[in-house]
UniProtKB/TrEMBL annotation:
Protein's name in the database: DoxX family protein
Transmembrane helix listed as a keyword: yes
Entries under NCBIfam families matching the protein: BT_3928_fam
Gene Ontology cellular component list: membrane
Subcellular location: Membrane
InterPro entries (UniProt xref): Methylamine_util_MauE
Record-annotated membrane-spanning stretches: 48-75, 82-102, 122-140, 152-174
Predominant location category: membrane
Keyword Membrane: yes
GO biological process assignments: methylamine metabolic process
Length: 367
C-alpha cells in the first residue's frame, strides 16, 4: 500500500506540473480557450462572465502557474494538507468545466494540455476523474507521506522559486512566441501539403432498410437501402489544415499565390487589439524588403472588415494592399498581433512576434 500511495502522490504532482508548463508554453492559446468558456457561461449563466475575457491572459498565467506551484509543493510535501485541499479545489473546478463541455457539447477541447495533446470533452472529464482518484488515495493515506522534503523557510523558498520560474516562463512566452509550437503552422511545415490528405480517404456507409441498419465499405447498389451516415475509416490520414484561405475584398481566392514564392505575411488578427507602437519598425521592414535580392513579396492579412482596416492602416501609415482570412485561422498561424510568417513555396521558414521584428538580412538568410 505504501508503494501505491507514493506512486499516486508522484503521478498527481508530476501531472499538475506538466499540465501547467504545457499551458505556460502557450499562454495566449490558453487564454483563447478561457475566452471560449467565458462566452459560453455568459450565454448560459450570466452576462458578467464577459468581463473575464478582458483579463483572460492574466488568468491564463495565474491558473497555469498555480498548477505548477501546487505540483511542486505536493512533491516537496510542503504544507501537505493545505496543498491537497488547494489541489482538490482546482480539480473540482476543472472537472466541472470538462463535464459541462462534454455533457452540453459547449467547448470541444478543454485545452488541458494545450495543443500538445488534444483531448475530446469526455476524455478530459475522465482524466479529471482519474486525478481525483489519485487525490483521494493520497489524501486518505497521508500517513505514508510523513517525511517532508523541504520544511519551514526552505520549503517556502522552493515554492516561491517555483512560482517565479512559472510566471517568468509564461510572461516571456506571452511577449514573444511559444517555446514549442504544436500548431500546424510551425516552422518547417509545408502548409500546402498539410492541406492535402496524406493517403486516400476510405469510408464506410451506414445504411438502413426495413428497420435494419448495416455498414458497407462500398456504396450499395440496392436502391432500397437508405443512406444514414458516411464515416471516414482513416481520419488520421485526412488534411491537417482544412481552413487556411486568403482572399481579396472582392472574394478572389489568393491562397495558391500565398503558397508560391517567397512571402512575408504580416498578420494583423484584429485592428482593435493590435499593438500600434511597433508600426514604424514594421513599415521600415516592408519598405526594405522591396529591394531584396530574394524577391520577397510582403502581404498584409487581416480578419477585420475592409472599413475597419482602412481606417487603421491610415492611422499607422501602413503601406501596401491588404487581404483577408478567417480570424480563428490567424490566431493559429501566429500567436502575435501583429505577427510575421515567412514562407518559401508554402513552407514555413520563420515566425516572429512584434517584439522580435526581423531585419531584411534575417529574412534573406531564412530564404
Amino acid at each position: 500500500m505504501r508503494t501505491f500511495v507514493r506512486l499516486c502522490w508522484f503521478l498527481l504532482g508530476a501531472l499538475f506540473i506538466f499540465s501547467g508548463l504545457i499551458k505556460l508554453n502557450d499562454p495566449i492559446g490558453t487564454a483563447y480557450k478561457l475566452e471560449e468558456y467565458f462566452e459560453v457561461f455568459a450565454i448560459d449563466f450570466a452576462p458578467f462572465f464577459l468581463y473575464f475575457k478582458s483579463i483572460a491572459r492574466l488568468l491564463s498565467i495565474t491558473l497555469s502557474s498555480l498548477e505548477v506551484v501546487l505540483g511542486v509543493a505536493l512533491l516537496l510535501r510542503w504544507n501537505l494538507r493545505f496543498t491537497l485541499w488547494s489541489l482538490f479545489a482546482l480539480l473540482v473546478f476543472f472537472a466541472f468545466l470538462t463535464f459541462y463541455s462534454a455533457a452540453f457539447n459547449k467547448v470541444t477541447d478543454c485545452g488541458c494540455f494545450g495543443d500538445f495533446i488534444k483531448l475530446k470533452p469526455w476524455h478530459s472529464f475522465f482524466k479529471d476523474l482519474f486525478l481525483l482518484f489519485l487525490w483521494a488515495v493520497v489524501y486518505f493515506n497521508q500517513r505514508f507521506l510523513r517525511r517532508v522534503f523541504a520544511k519551514g523557510t526552505l520549503g517556502t523558498m522552493y515554492v516561491t522559486f517555483a512560482l517565479a520560474v512559472a510566471v517568468g516562463i509564461g510572461v516571456y512566452a506571452l511577449g514573444h512566441l511559444p517555446y514549442f509550437d504544436f500548431l500546424p503552422y510551425k516552422v518547417g511545415n509545408d502548409i500546402g501539403k498539410l492541406m492535402q490528405p496524406s493517403a486516400p480517404l476510405r469510408y464506410k456507409y451506414i445504411m438502413e432498410k426495413g428497420g435494419t441498419t448495416q455498414e458497407f465499405t462500398e456504396y450499395p447498389t440496392d436502391t432500397l437501402w437508405k443512406f444514414k451516415q458516411m464515416v471516414a475509416l482513416n481520419p488520421e490520414d485526412g488534411p491537417k489544415i482544412t481552413d487556411f484561405r486568403v482572399w481579396e475584398a472582392d472574394q478572389t481566392d489568393l491562397t495558391k499565390e500565398v503558397l508560391t514564392g517567397n512571402k512575408l505575411l504580416v498578420v494583423i488578427q484584429n485592428v482593435t487589439k493590435a499593438d500600434r507602437d511597433r508600426f514604424p519598425q514594421i513599415n521600415a521592414l516592408l519598405a526594405s524588403v522591396d529591394s531584396s535580392k530574394k524577391d520577397i513579396t510582403p502581404m498584409i492579412i487581416t480578419s477585420s472588415s475592409a472599413g475597419e482596416f482602412d481606417v487603421f492602416r491610415h492611422e499607422v501609415n501602413l503601406p501596401g494592399k491588404y487581404y483577408f482570412a478567417d480570424g480563428t485561422v490567424l490566431k493559429s498561424v501566429v500567436r502575435s498581433n501583429p505577427g510575421f510568417l515567412v514562407l518559401k513555396d508554402g513552407v514555413v521558414k520563420g515566425k516572429f512576434h512584434y517584439h522580435d521584428i526581423p531585419s531584411r538580412a534575417k529574412l534573406e538568410e531564412m530564404l
